[in-house]
Design a protein that fits this description.
The structure is a single chain. It is built from five helices and seven strands. It has about 160 residues and is an alpha+beta fold. The chain has a single domain, classed as 2-C-methyl-D-erythritol 2,4-cyclodiphosphate synthase (60s Ribosomal Protein L30, Chain: A), CATH 3.30.1330. Strand 2 and strand 3 form a beta hairpin. The longest helix is centred in the middle third of the chain and has 14 residues. It binds magnesium ion (MG). Magnesium ion binds next to strand 1 and helix 1.
């Protein structure tokens, strides 16, 4: 078995949609990025790649490549799962934490879990997503952006 961890941050910006955990969330601002800026999926991809010792998301899907401009991060997760599969690994479980002062994420957690479980072709019970504020401290607390952490366990197929 192998463990992997991932971390990502994106800043809030006006006139952007807020994509998180593969779903669109109603909010007055979205996250800024070359792709749809789904910070949770990006941290999850990095955790998967890390577990398989396959470098990182920027190595496989560079944000300088016009091919990835505005891309749906669910597609990056699908591609990442193909890399994991090709190296002979399967996902056991993942545990993620989203750090956001706004918006309230608890009502959306189960939909995110369902969405990510479907993409990773695993049971919803293997996909844990947690949300926390940072008690108004730091860039998250000042509502400047969202951070996400992910930990995954993989095993040989
Ligand atoms: Mg990112």
């Amino acid at each position: 078995m192998r463990i992997g961890q991932g971390y990502d941050v994106h800043q809030f910006a006006a006139n952007r949609q807020l994509w998180l955990g593969g779903i669109l969330i109603e909010h007055e601002r979205g996250l800024l990025g070359h792709s749809d800026a789904d910070v949770l999926i990006h941290s999850l991809c990095d955790a998967l790649l890390g577990a398989a010792c396959l470098r990182d998301i920027g190595y496989h899907f560079p944000d300088t490549d016009p091919k990835y401009k505005g891309i749906d991060s669910k597609e990056l997760l699908r591609k990442t799962m193909r890399l994991i599969d090709a190296k002979g690994y399967r996902l056991i479980n993942c545990d993620c934490t989203i750090c956001a002062q706004v918006p309230k994420l608890n009502p959306h957690i189960d939909q995110m879990r369902q969405c990510l479980a479907q993409i990773m072709q695993t049971d919803i019970d293997c996909v844990s997503i947690k949300a926390t504020t940072t008690e108004h401290l730091g860039f998250v607390g000042r509502e400047e952006g969202i951070a996400a952490y992910a930990t995954v366990l993989i095993d040989n197929k």
